Amino acid sequence: MFRRTIGLLTLVLLASSAVAAQAPPDISVIGVHAVSYVDVMPASRAPAVAALKQYRDWSRKDDGYGRLELFEQIGRPGHFAVLETWRDQKASDAHSMAAHTQQLQNALQPIRSSGYDQRPYKAVTVGPPPAAAGNQTIYVITHVDVVPNPQNDPPGLLRRLAEASRNEKGNVRFDILQHAMRANHFTIVEAWQSQGALDAHAAAAHTRQYRDTLQPMAGGPLDERLYKAVE
Fold first, then answer.
1. What is the pLDDT of residue 17?
2. pLDDT of 112-128, one tens digit each?
3. Global pTM value
4. What are the C-alpha distances in Å from 142 to residues 8, 73, 145, 188, 222?
5. Is the pLDDT of residue 20 over 50?
6. N or C: which end of the chain has fewer CB within 10 A?
């Protein structure tokens, strides 16, 4: 009986290992990320939204696609941010050469008031894909620039902020990305169910502690902007 039990246990462990081996990797964690910004002239907002949506829809068919999200800055129509995740650098490079990527640039060229500023990133900490957000969801995209210093640990500081913030009431998402080529540049991507939840987060003890710790090592003011999703 003992040997039979051990045998069954071994089979279960082997089966579990096989399932785990076949489970697809979490692209959001191991993949490559890009954050892009573009501003268009106010009168051209509608065609810009149409071009961005078409780009998103076509990109979903690309090999190695992970996620592509569109955001518009609250209170500043025509100011957009594009967040992308790809399986690896090869998939990202292939996407950058795709016809629909060039079509987006062609559509934006005559109506943009700024260049298409795309920045490559890797994940520091990325939570699971959030559930469908409501109409009141507020997104916050913050650029953090720190002065390089081996005695500081900005990734650790930001990771602790993310872990604490994800436990707050009303939090939908809290991701930390690090620039792929400039290790002292980070982007924080947050989502909150309401303005009240965001206000409570700003007043939380761990948020204030984070800002106090960051201030001496910061290379400039926090570039924090509020967005809404472009569905």
1. 45
2. 999 999 999 999 999 88
3. 0.86
4. 52, 12, 10, 5, 7
5. no
6. N
For residue 30 the two structure tokens come to 């191991």
Q: Supply the pLDDT for residue 8.
A: 42
DSSP string, the chain: -HHHHHHHHHHHHHHHHHHHHHSPP-HHHHSEEEEEEEEB-GGGHHHHHHHHHHHHHHHTTSTTEEEEEEEEETT-TTEEEEEEEESSHHHHHHHHTSHHHHHHHHHHTTTBSS--EEEEEEEEE--PPPPPPPTT-EEEEEEEEB---TT--HHHHHHHHHHHHTTSTTEEEEEEEEESS-TTEEEEEEEESSHHHHHHHHHSHHHHHHHHHHGGGBSS--EEEEEEE--
Residue 12 backbone phi and psi in degrees, to 5:
-65, -45
Q: What proportion of the chain, given as a percentage, has pLDDT over 90? A: 78
pLDDT at 96: 96
